[in-house]
Structures are given as C-alpha cells and as structure tokens.
Amino acid sequence: MSPGRIAEVLSVNIRLCLTEIFSNRVRTIITSFGIFLGIGALLTNLSFIRAMRDNVEQNLEKMGGLNVVTINQVEPGSLQEKMRFQRSEGLSIGEMEKLTADLPYVRKVLTTADIGRARVMYRGRDRRARVSAVGLEHAELYDYRIGEGRWFTAEQMSRSQRVCVAGPGVVNRLIPPGESAVGKTMLVRGVPMTVVGVIQTEQRYDRRSREVLIPYSVYERDFGGFHKRVGSVSVLLTGSEHADEFRRTVGTRLLSAHRGVRDFEIQLNEEKIQEQRKAMVGLQAVLWSIAVISLVGGGVSIMNIMFATIGDRIREIGIRKALGARRADVFVQFFTEAILVCFVGGTPGLLLGLAVTSFPPGIFPFTPRLTIMDYFIAFCFTVVSGMMSGLVPALKASGMRPVDALRY
Fold it and tell me: In this structure, which long-range contacts are made by residues 183-189, counting pairs with CB atoms below 8 Å and at least 24 apart in sequence?
C-alpha cells in the first residue's frame, strides 16, 4: 500500500470515527472513564514513586553520605542482659576518639549528642522538641539549610556561647506571628539559649522542623561533659571503602573496652539506604499493580462497548464493503475508534496527574514530581490500551461478509 493510500485511509477513517464519537458523546465519556482513572492513577503513582526516590537521596544527604558510620548504644532486652550491661561504661565521644586515634582512614569523630525530647519555653509558651548538641561541621555534612539568620560561628563554638538553631515547627509555636525568631532567648531544658538561625525545611512533616540544635561545647559545659554516655557516636571516614574494615577493627576494640559486653551496634549509612530502597521497591510494585489493573479494567470496558457497537453497526459495515471498502479499511476504522476513545479518557487523566503535582508543599509527606518521560509513558499506555481493546473487535468487524451484513 502506497503512502498516499495509507494517508487517505487514515483520513477517511478518522473522520468516520470522530463522527461516531460525537454522535454518542455520553456513551463515549462513560466508556472512557476507566481509562481516565487508569491514566490518572498511573501518573499519580509515578509522581509518588519519583518522590520516594528523591526522598531516599535526600535522606542520604541528611545522614552525611556513605562515609559516615554510626555506633549505636543497644538497650538491654532482659533483666539478665541489663545486669551484664552494667559492666560496660557505655559509649562516649572521648572513648571513640581514643579508640580511633591511630586509624588513618578516620577523618573525624563527629561531636554530636542526642539530648532527647525536652521542653522549650518562651514567655510562658512551651512545646516539646528534640534537642541535639552538634559540632561546627554538622550543617554542611548533613545538608542543613538556614532560612533566617545563620549557623553557629567558630567563635561562638569556642567560647561556648548559649546559642541555638531551631526548626520552624518550634519557632512558629513559640514566637508570635510577625516577629522574627532571631535574637529571641528561649529556655531549653531550663538553660537560656539565644536563637541565631531558623532551619529551612521544604516539607511540613520534616523531622528537622521540630529540632533545636545547640553547640556541642555548650553541651559539654551545661549538660554533662565530654565523657558522658551518649546514645550514638558518628564517625566520618575518608572513604566508604573503609567502612567494613572500620566495623571489624573498632568492633573488636569496643568489645574489649566494654569488658566483653556487646552493648553496641555499628551501622553503615549504606545499609540504611539499602533498607529504604528495599522498602521502596515493594511499595513501587503495589503502586504499579494498582495503575495497571485500572488500565486493564478500562481497556476491557472499551472492548465490550466496541463489540456492542459492532452489533449495532453491522448494516453500516455491509454498506461500506458493498461500496468497495476493503477489509483493511474496516479494520482501521474500528481500530482507530478504540484508540480515540482511549484518548477521550486519557487526556483528562494526564491533567489529573498534573494536578497532583500542583498541590502546595506540605500537603503530602514528600513532594510529588513528574517529568516529561512520565507523561510520555502515560501517553504510550493510552495508545497501547486502545490498541489492545480495539484489536479483536476490529478483526471481527473486518471479517464480516457484505452479503451477511446487509441482511440486518
């Protein structure tokens, strides 16, 4: 078939299809509703899948990258274990610096301490917040951004000045609307702290929104000192390839220092990321299943209507064939009609996916995002659904004999 003949066949059949669709607008809209839901579900799920991937990458940055290793204090699970754990002095920054001093691949023992949930007060108002003591490098290493004010300075850290950086969830609860939090003095566990910066968070449910960070030097002086037990200690390595060696070497040294008591666990950031990715794969499978099932349901609905339509248009098929229409002409007509019906539902489905990404930040725990490739995938699914739902009905219509069709 020449290109001119193909163009002529497509032009004629598209006009016939559009005439049929506009003549039965209500039936077409109802028939394509399943495709609308399927494409909308597909784009919505793709946006959430992409948002979860972004969330994993952001968590990697917030955990300091793959070069950070965390040693966590293990809580006893029984009375016997509790009595055995009493032989150990627990974790401390000072102990970790001493144990890793001769390891060339240890860049720094991070001076951080989780003080825990504490009451933060300002002029009679109070709220609970997670208070942590951090070092000067904490902001860069864990990708903290300051929206108002600034981070601690080296001078404030060296002089142990009572300053803090607070999350917006804490600030908005304590500081009256319209007032700047920078320069205000809040009581953190009864200790006055001057706010020098407000943490910038993109999401309403971000854990950092409810944090208060103080200089580690202030923690040493006012909250317990350098050798106090801590819940975890983080160590920055020169490269992630040394993580396994660090685990073996430091694990042996800690076991000896703690008198044979394994009251700690060494966790690599790489393992945390792998756990998150495994959980994400399972959720992705569920989301993809929902979208595909919706599309298959919509395709089956269109196929059923196409079969019913052929039954109503048998005489039309017979007249076309009697006037010289070929089998390919009839096949293209019904095949194209099924695809166009899918586009009637698929087009608003594309708009529904766009609407999901237009919600203001903070509505969802993470920010849905779509790319041009996602819309192209949805477009391809629309075409494939139309082809699959129209193939069998089109073959049935094109296989009718003019003599049999004209009897109706």
Answer: 184/122, 185/122, 186/120, 186/121, 186/122, 186/212, 187/119, 187/120, 187/121, 187/122, 188/118, 188/120, 188/131, 188/164, 188/212, 188/214, 189/115, 189/118, 189/119, 189/131, 189/223
Among residues 70, 391, 397, which one has the least CA distance to residue 237? Answer: 70
- Helix 3-23 to helix 327-356 angle (10° resolution) is 60
Q: Angle CA(182)–CA(185)–CA(189) in degrees, nearest 5?
A: 125
Please tell me the distance from the alpha carbon of residue 70 to that of residue 72, in angstroms, as a whole number: 6
Which DSSP letter does residue 255 get?
A: H
C-alpha–C-alpha distance, residues 326 and 223, integer Å: 89
Cβ contact 174:127 at 8 Å: yes
Q: Are 247 and 100 a contacting pair, CB within 8 Å?
A: no
pLDDT tens per residue, range 107-144: 888 878 888 888 899 988 888 899 988 888 888 777 78
User: Edge-to-edge strands of the sheet including 232-237?
Assistant: 106-110, 232-237, 68-73, 264-268
pTM tops 0.70: no
Tokens 């075409």 found at: 383
Q: Are 325 and 395 in contact (CB under 8 A)?
A: no
Tokens linked to 389: 């739902």
* Count of CB atoms situated within 10 Å of the CB of 163: 22
Residue 210 to residues 86, 128, 196, 322: CA-CA distances in angstroms? 33, 8, 16, 77
- Give the DSSP H/E element, type plus range, for residue 165: strand 163-166
Give the list of residues 6+ apart from residue 97 with CB closer than 8 angstroms, or none: 109
